[in-house]
């Protein structure tokens, strides 16, 4: 993520501001059929415009009052949406200067299991993570078969939005006693970090090897509901087992990917070192 000092003072580098705000209004109205609160609809509309490059890294965004006027929503709703985006790291707010799109707004460089490409096989789609749940569980599964020394587990669920086209679900399991400090992290921080990096930097447990397995499967009703899919949806389930020194298992990740038209670029061995150095 870029530092504040790295964010320029230029205005919108894409379409004219009036045209951009008209497009924002259109997107907010398109989302009006959803049951989500108004500020979440505005947040989604802004994110989609950033994802598509209508607001580029370094661009200064309009004032809160202009967002409210253009979207047809209240000033409080606009403030709530922009504040949430800033907390998630999708925007940077500079006191006395305005709100900017950071150069690292997309998390594709850190979320290595969510690198989706387009038809041209070149551009990586922008992705954004949202931590939706963190809990301690003793329930067994593939994770308990891997982490055999753990008596309880921390499960972190994150919803990964891919180019505002579809959502994936990540369930990350770690030893609940060994890594209990993860429970003290603010949820807002879990939006942005790569959890394996946290294990390396805070607990001196780097990821040195991963094993990936993928299969087509029907999604459990709970997974389908979280991804707002039909209850009988089929998709891909990617299992990632992580190991540290002496091939000691340290984490199990279950990723659910719904049907989509994009290609998934699988992580290679060269990417593993990034688990210990990515920010």
Automatic annotation (TrEMBL):
GO molecular function per UniProt: DNA binding; DNA-binding transcription factor activity
CDD domains: WHTH_GntR
Gene Ontology terms: biological process: negative regulation of DNA-templated transcription
Keyword DNA-binding included in the entry's annotation: yes
Gene3D superfamilies documented for this protein: Chorismate lyase-like, Winged helix-like DNA-binding domain superfamily/Winged helix DNA-binding domain
Domain of life (superkingdom): Bacteria
Keywords annotated in UniProt: DNA-binding, Transcription, Transcription regulation
SMART domains linked to this entry: HTH_GNTR, UTRA
Domain HTH gntR-type: start-end pairs: 36-104
PANTHER family (alphabetical): MANNOSYL-D-GLYCERATE TRANSPORT/METABOLISM SYSTEM REPRESSOR MNGR-RELATED, MANNOSYL-D-GLYCERATE TRANSPORT_METABOLISM SYSTEM REPRESSOR MNGR-RELATED
Protein name: HTH gntR-type domain-containing protein
Source species: Ancylobacter novellus (Thiobacillus novellus)
Source species taxonomy: Bacteria, Pseudomonadati, Pseudomonadota, Alphaproteobacteria, Hyphomicrobiales
């Amino acid at each position: 993520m870029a530092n504040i000092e790295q964010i320029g003072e230029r205005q919108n580098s894409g379409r004219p501001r009036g045209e951009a705000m008209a497009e924002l209004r259109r997107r907010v109205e398109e989302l009006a059929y959803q049951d989500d609160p108004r500020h979440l609809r505005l947040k989604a509309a802004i994110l989609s415009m950033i994802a598509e490059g209508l607001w580029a890294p370094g661009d200064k965004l309009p004032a809160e009052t202009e967002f409210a006027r253009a979207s047809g929503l209240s000033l409080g709703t606009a403030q709530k949406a922009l504040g949430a985006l800033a907390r998630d790291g999708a925007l940077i707010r500079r006191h006395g200067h305005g709100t900017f799109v950071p150069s690292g707004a997309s998390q594709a460089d850190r979320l290595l299991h969510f690198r989706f490409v387009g038809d041209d096989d070149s551009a990586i789609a922008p992705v954004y993570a949202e931590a939706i749940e963190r809990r301690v569980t003793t329930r067994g599964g593939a994770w308990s078969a891997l982490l055999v020394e753990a008596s309880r587990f921390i499960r972190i669920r994150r919803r990964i939005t891919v180019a505002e086209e579809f959502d994936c679900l990540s369930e990350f399991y770690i030893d609940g006693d060994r890594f209990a400090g993860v429970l003290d992290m603010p949820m807002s921080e879990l939006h942005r970090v790569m959890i394996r990096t946290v294990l390396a930097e805070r607990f001196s447990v780097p990821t040195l090897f991963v094993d990936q397995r993928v299969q087509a499967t029907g999604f459990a009703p709970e997974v389908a509901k979280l991804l707002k899919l039909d209850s009988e949806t089929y998709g891909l389930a990617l299992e990632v087992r992580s190991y540290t020194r002496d091939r000691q298992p340290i984490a199990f990740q279950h990723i659910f990917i719904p049907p989509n038209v994009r290609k998934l670029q699988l992580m290679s061995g060269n990417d593993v070192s990034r688990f210990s150095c990515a920010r």
